[in-house]
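Worked example 4.2. Below are the chains of a multi-component assembly; read each line carefully before continuing.
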Amino acid sequence: MIDLTFVEHNGEHHRVSAKQGTNLMQVAVDNAIPGIDADCGGSCACGTCHVRVSQQWLDKVGAPSESEALMLEMTPEHDARSRLACQVTIQPEMSGMIVDIPEFQM
Amino acid sequence: MTSQTSQENNMLPDPYSVPLESINLSDPNLYSQNRWEDYFRRVRDEDPVHYLKESPFGPFWSVTRFEDIVAVDTNHVDFSSEPWIMIGDPDPTLPLENFISMDPPKHDDQRAAVQSVVAPRNLAAMEDLIRERIATILDKLPVNESFDWVSNVSIELTSQMLATIFDFPYEDRHKLVYWSEMATGAPELSGGTALPEERFAALQDMVTTFAGLWEQKSASRKAGNPVGFDLISLLESNEDTRDMITRPAEFMGNLGLLIVGGNDTTRHSISGSVLAMDRFPEEFEKLCANPKLIPSMVSEIIRWQTPLSHMRRVANCDIELGGKLIKKGDKVVMWYISGNRDDRVIDNPNQVIIDRAKARHHLSFGFGIHRCMGNRLGEMQLRITWEEILKRFDKIEVLEEPERVRSNFVSGYTSMQVKLRPKSR
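Applying the procedure described above to all two chains together yields the following structure tokens:
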């Protein structure tokens, strides 16, 4: 299992364990983490599982695909750390990763 | 898009009694007569990617299942939104262009210029104002007597919101409603009933009025005043959209888009929510017992109502979908109203279930890069409306079958007679 921490906008930390190969959105939903809506269910089609990956983990997560980047542009709150959680596949090297949840999903 | 006319109200046949290949899902009578459910059920089950050779809107494909709709909606490379996203094309004498009917990259710049107005952060700042206005409307309603919910509440409320986000003169807000109805109500676009001369005059008036507002915002900005936080100020001040006013088709098209997007959708969902709570009284009891269900109920209503029935695409290449070969250039209509009733994805889809699991997983906002920009504003208006209704009333009784809009694009109500029972103390 791979340890991850979600940080809500209000600062609350949620430590969870995830299986390799699942996606970050599913981990959040399975653990009832507040602030992830995931309206489309993981199709990279709604933008409501927007998260920000902590700087030091960015290279482990990699850059968004073209279609993911287009969806991210639809929220005015996106920045260089933004990813759609449904498009991040959990890998062993992500153990310990910290993920920030934005105040709002659009 | 005014109320249905009696001479066109011939009863439609049983959908299972007609040849499958002849079923025409673009017939506006299906919607004004509320017969669409059965027709779509047959097509979803027997011919989910359905081709119709001839119709008033030309030949077109109907995509009717949830998953197929998601596949088309998220594939903007093979399915273009140009030149127009309604089943019918605009009259060439009144050309219209807008960003929902554009592919990347032009779409991206124009949308980006306006989307922050309806971003959740800004909505939070508007919540008190919205609540105050809704409360004022509800407090003025008669109790224990019949009145029309559509004109007295749904239209009033959404037009006030529109005036707010456009910074449009408040006393003229009913013009926005009229223009919105005229924008989508053309027979050639949606099977509506707007007369060409009247529609042309209305849209010209809309453009002239907004051009005046635009000039006003421009002068104010050039005089050194801070840029206002409304849709026109943002378009006027953004480098990517500043010259839109010099392109009449684009100016008119985008205004129409923003007005229709902010008006018809929320209006009909508000009316639909009242109808749903009357038709499913056990759900209303659930809601009264637990008002924390309001956000989930709002998503469920938006699914059940599906205020925009469809969006249209054009295939950019030959492409297979559901075992059918769609040819390059073919018109492809995604029927959100059908996908939202697809029991392959949604259990008991014809039932309103306010505490449904995954209530947000519906098609009404679309998926992909054209996903509804104002979804959070719409949800917020519905949420506050119901929070305020529950404080005041024990029951909203729908007294008779509502009258429905004659359109294959806007799914909603032209009138709904109701009676309010005030809250017992």
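Take a moment to check your reading of the output against the notes. The radius of gyration of chain A is 12 Å. The mean pLDDT of chain A is 95.
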